[in-house]
Amino acid sequence: MVDRNSKYRKGSKIVINYFVLYFNNCCIHGFRYLTDSMLILFEKFLWLILLVASIYFCIIVCLSSIDRYYTKSTHIGIERNYIFWNTTLPSVTVCPVDRLNITYFADFCRTNGIKGPQRDILWDFLENLANSTYINFQNIPQNEQIDQIIEDIGLKPEHYTELIYNLTYDRTYEPNFNERIRCMDGAMFIHVRQVLTEWGLCYLGNSKLTEEYSSRYFIFGKYPEYNKYEYENIRLPYQVGSFFQKDTQYALLGFKGPAIIAFAHSAFEVMKVDSNSDYAYDGVLYDLSTEEITAEDNLEQDTTVAMRRCRFPHESNLTHFPFYTRNICQQECRINLAYKICKCIPHFYPNRIANPKPVCDYKTLRSCFPQHASFFLKLYEENGNHENPATCYCEQNCHDSVVTMKSMNPMSGAKQLLGGIGSAVSVKTWPQSRLRRQVIFSLTDLLVSIGGTAGLFLGFSVLGFVEVIYFFTIRIVFQILGYTL
Known about the structure:
It is a single chain. By secondary structure, this protein is an alpha+beta fold. It has a domain at 4-73 and 443-481. It is built from 17 helices and 18 strands. Strand 4 and strand 5 form a beta hairpin. It is elongated. It comes from Drosophila mauritiana (Fruit fly). InterPro entries: ENaC.
């Protein structure tokens, strides 16, 4: 028992002597006064109070710097050197009212033995299904004949969109120039593609989104095929303008149906299903203005999503979509909300995921969705009928633009003059300021701030930190082994 106490006292003395050795030799101000034999107890106590206070305030200020780094390291500033800018024109998405191709449909009916009145019933059903969205699901026809036809051809809900796609002719690949859907600025061709939206298959022009946003990629996971008719001509991926161009415009043309539905939106975004032009029988001419939101080149590398509170397109955290925009994020919110309320999702959403959600049959689209249409579109309800409100937060786009509509007018005489209808975008005035996301407190600033704080309160430095590591790792090992340094 005595030997054990003796060993304990001896070990405690060694530990105390080692800390005294460190206090006498460390570069942190004030520690050596705690072990100085020349000072009386009151002086040592005074130095201890000063050291505790300095360490406390050093930690508080350092934590404040860390909090600033993670929560306030970026801001949105204003730039005004507008004479050096090129501003991207807004995008336009056009959805034709007549979706199906009569030739493809005839071949499908011939292959599946659909004749006579059944053929007309199926055509009407598929056209309404292809044009259906949250505001008009109730217009999908329902009767026993449709049920019988669906049963005969073995059409399952998860194949609705694939069938509509196969019966729709992508007229951006039309050899005849006058029949082709094209996006043009005078003699210059602008890239246009077929996309799958919440209003079915539509056409998008002047977009800065990647080719992953296309109907073929959403449905089959394949990029759009090479369009030789577009690449044979002088082609722009998207149209830009500058302050010195007083009137810049382009048109998305070639629609032969009785009417179209058009959406004008940011070139960095997708259309919103509730921001359409209604049915336009002569086409739509938009007079718009736009103000871009840009980002510093180092914003992505120097910050995380939580720090900058925005996402770049390739930083998708979504399940159904391979890229990110705020409107796409809200579409995923609608997917989850529809699945929660109606136990299935509409047919026009991409569903190529590890665990696909069940797709609604047309009867569920008619019965469940119309009564919740406002909730699905707004993602909230003013009267609060639903027990569990939609919990959906979508970060902003790091690159974006604010599009303001000055006017929206019909393109009178477009059918006679151009042989079809479409939508045109005109920008007559250019912004003299734009917003820019900037890093104002980088990791280097954080290290300088912490180092300056530690130096101010404790006289601490990088070498002081190395000294602590050295004393309590390498030196203590040698002390245990019995070596003297």
